[in-house]
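chain below, 434 aa
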Amino acid sequence: MYNLPDFNSDEFQKKFSKILRHKVLQVFLLVLIIFVASQFAMGRLSLEDIKSRYHTFMEGVKNSVEYQFTLAPKPAEKYVSQISYEQAVINAVKSASPSVVSIVISKYLPVYEQQLINPFGENSPFDILVPQQVQKGSKYQEVGAGSGFIVSEDGLVLTNKHVVSDKKADYTVFTSDGKKYKAKVLALDPVQDLAIIKITHSTDSGQAEKFPAILLGDSNGVQIGQGAIAIGNALGQFSNTVSVGVVSGLGRTVNASDQAGSFSETLEGIIQTDAAINPGNSGGPLLNLKGEVIGVNTAMAQGSQSIGFTIPINIAKRDINQVAATNKIVYPFLGVRYVLIDEKVKEKYNLKVDYGALVMKGDNGESATTKDSPAQKADIREKDIVLELNGERVTSANSLAKIIQKYRPDDKVRLKVLRGEKEMDIEVVLTERS
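prediction:
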């Protein structure tokens, strides 16, 4: 408990009397008394006015005190990030851009000129000349461009398979600071639209140059609606172009092809985004707002706006690890052609089940099983239905190919197969597909 100071009444009385005897104070009090008396005499001031002003003053004091108490205790507020969305995008781009590269494709192309040729030969009696295109040598020139990003300090670059699939072409990598490097193709993914190339360069001292590797995220945790940033060599002209959007969908299946129609494949488990993916962006990264790669930009929907597709980075991690260890990419291989069964397929072929993989010949009469493949050796036949692999059901959303990718070459798996009316279990040893 606090002790209050002692109150000395005699001391207080002496000090107060001294104040009252001060001449300046006496003059001030005399003037104040005369002023108040004159106001009463002229009717400008009354007892009612004094009461009213007193009550107004006290009400103001009361409100001021209540306001002070109202401000004092604030309830706890939820935490709100001080980093704005715009600043998060800026930080992510700044972090990732040094690792994003432009890939230029160059090769020798034939040069033609028009000449007049006798179609019947030089010694022909017929004097007929027909214009024809005749090759006159070849010219080395750029034929395309794409994007990629550095995934290791020693210069491994992840990109799309369709960007670097031409074995007769040369590939040049341009970094964000304008440096130019030659690159060689190390491995093409046999299943996904992915490839690994490596920058071939040494410093003046003969030591390998170190490159800035990008941060890889976890695509398994991606959610619809989260922010997404695409970076790439847009249109093959504008390097490190940035576009921003959101993740629009997950688990998509798309049939992708290049502009020339020379490359086509079905991609499963794809991320959809409305961040602009233009020609030339292929192979560039799709980032989250932390600057981590969540996907490899690979395709856009023709004739639409803001519909782009990207391969989840967790699929690509497998390729990166394999190339770093063995310089190649391999997948387990079963060797069977099939169509996934849904209600429409069930009705069309009068099937007894609405799930599984129906083994069929190709559109051009190709065999239902690949020659000398595990499927052929296990006597899997046309019109068989593969229902399960190691107990995992095959459905339109969980294809046989997707299930097989969870295993490795030389793994033994058990297939549940429906042949006619009979179900059977067949053991198969997967081989290597590279």
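The chain is about 25% helix and 35% strand. Residues 331-433 form a domain with the Pdz3 Domain fold (CATH 2.30.42.10).
thats it, cya
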